[in-house]
Amino acid sequence: MKRRKVLLIITSVMIMYTSFTVQASMPVPDLLPIGQLRLDKEPSEEAGQVSGNSAEVAGPEDEAETAQDVLDGEAIGSGAILISDKTAEDYELAYERAKNANWGYTNLGIADVSDNLNIRAIAAEDGRLVGKLPRNAACEVIDTDDTWAHIKSGSVEGYVSLEYLLTGVPAKFKAEELATTVARVVTDSLKVRAEANTESEVITLVAEGEELEVAAVEGDWVKVLLDDDEVFVSAEYVEVSAELGTAVTMSELLYGQGISDVRVDICQYAKEFIGNPYVWGGTSLTKGADCSGFVMSVFKKYGVKLPRNSRAQANCGTTIKVSEAKPGDLIFYAKGKTINHVAIYIGNGQVVHASSPKTGIKISNVSYRTPFKAVRILYD
After folding, report:
1. Looking at the predicted structure, is the pLDDT value of residue 8 above 60?
2. 350: in domain
3. Same domain, yes or no, for 305 and 210?
4. Which domain CATH number covers 206?
5. Which of 207, 200, 209 is nearest to 336 (CA)?
6. What's the number of domains the chain is made of?
7. Among 31, 73, 329, 372, which one has the highest count of C-beta atoms within 10 angstroms of its own C-beta?
8. How big is the CA angle at 370 (ends 327 and 338), to the nearest 5 degrees?
9. 237: phi > 0 → left, psi -120 to 50 → alpha, else beta; which?
């Protein structure tokens, strides 16, 4: 009888141990590196991979690092830790590396508004405006209370209403949808070509420091969107990374002296629609417009009638030097020598324009690509 009891106890212990080991060894979803993206579903030597703040042209042996990568593919969870030979330092390192994959933000916030979220100098509704966080733009959340969030985005730091800010897991999932893969130019006057070879036509030149939206990485070439055209640049002269939009400073929204009220009004009105969608053939400032439809609709409000397409708009008014442009003048861009894009100059070396289906209406540097001509249609 005593022997039977001993056998029953041994059998029970073995069953419990087997069950626990199997359960603890099951793969546990890695919830830490949410901020990782891939340029392709299946990474290859031709397809780049984005991880965290940067993306590099990578092969199968150059994978993005996740918490499980650091731990040699082991499961993550309390059960796994009990049967793992990894040290506490190993798990701490895995966590830190995975956390830093969140596009460079430790505590990510995303503006959940229809247009722009005001950033104020103090946590009060009458606080001085120091900038604006466009719809879907990202920020670092420094601290919060029940009503306000202390944030930093780009070069702007201040307070925004917590009611209109996504944080935590919702912010991370939203960022997965919003992150744009960009190629930052690291050489002076990068040649943009129609095809992925050095014999192809040079469409335009892009200045150092400018960012181009990436469509794909194809070996030694990066396919980018130049507004709504797909073109190519050499991978050797760009750095590819995943980016989220950031805040706009008040200095980017204001103008110098000597600019007429109507010019200021037109530019301020145009910027109300930043973040709204790009729609080819569209003319709606809220539901979607292409570059010329955006310009036409903005000026229509002020009694200025413009043709429907950018080439016809370039024949209106008086041609001026780009260096002479004032806020409210039009800047035109070309593919070769054929005008295919138009923007509104808003001062401080910047333009506002309906750029592409991915970015919608946005602000860019006037030299984000080589300007073809400038036109003045306002006389004041």
Report:
1. no
2. yes
3. no
4. 2.30.30.40
5. 200
6. 4
7. 329
8. 100
9. alpha
* Residues 310 and 292 reside in one and the same domain: yes
Answer yes or no: do 204 and 222 share one domain. yes
The span from the CA of 288 to the CA of 277, in Å, is: 5
Rounded Cα distance, 275 and 124, in Å: 26
Do 370 and 320 have their domain in common? yes
Is 191 among the domain residues?
A: yes
Contacts with 327 (C-beta within 8 Å, 6 or more apart), sequence order: 255, 259, 263, 264, 266, 267, 345, 346, 347
**Which tops the pLDDT comparison, 34 or 307?**
307
Residue at a domain's end among 243, 262, 280: 243
234 exposure class (CB count in 10 Å sphere: 0-12, 13-18, 19+): middle
pLDDT digits (tens, 9 = 90+) for 170-198: 998 888 888 878 889 999 889 999 999 99
Rounded to 5°, the CA angle 271-273-50 comes to 95
Summary mean pLDDT of the chain: 77
